[in-house]
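Hey, resending since the last one bounced:
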Amino acid sequence: MLTITSRHNPRLQEASRLVASARDRRKAGKCVLEGEHLIEAFAQRHGAPETLIVADDALERPGTSALAQRFSERALIVPSALLAELAALPAGIGVIAVVPALTPAPSAPADFCLLIDDVQDPGNVGSMLRTAAAAGVRQVLMSKHCAFAWSPKVLRAGQGAHFLIDVYEDVDLAEWASAYRGRGGEVVAATAAGGDGLYAARLTGRVAVAIGNEGAGLAPALVAQATQRVTIPMPGGMESLNAAAAAAVCLFECVRQRAAEASL
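The structure tokens again:
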């Protein structure tokens, strides 16, 4: 472990840039994980972070101390005030890590996928990734204008989901959906109105569920590739749910139907 007190340390400066700038994150292909939970989730599946930065007073916490010992060759111990200067970090976070923004290798489409179309709110994107991981989705495909999957807010909302599923960004979703249909998969477009009732749809087998943003919904080119259009019943009178809530309802209806079919 290396103790530093200068904000001019190159590794600390790199972390500061990555926290503050989406452009720098995309350019470098790196991101910053905040807190013990996310760092441990990454380490369990992908090994050591590039840099671990620990506030000196956080070493009193058993979990943070264990991380610092485990990755001592990559650890910087800094005054808590210096760590607090990094832009947009939650108060008292104690430990952060610089890691690569993982890019999964191309692979055949999975049997259970989520398509996210132009959802720009980072909290919604992170919640959708968390829900997808909980539901057993194997691949998440995101269109070009979605929030960056590896931004701090998305990572915070995802709570480690990024390390349980394959996340593909900048995907032409209409083209992907066309190919998925060609391989016998169902492409289920969730629409605010005009679709079949969600609970009457068949959502077993090879399924990709497509969720759009709250303003424009799904792109017409993507809807045109759907094999089913579904609408969530809302007897309470609201016109729509936010994207993350809609994804949760649709994905767990898939889970329910799959479990029912497996029990037959």
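The chain has a mean pLDDT of 92.

Sorry for the duplicate.
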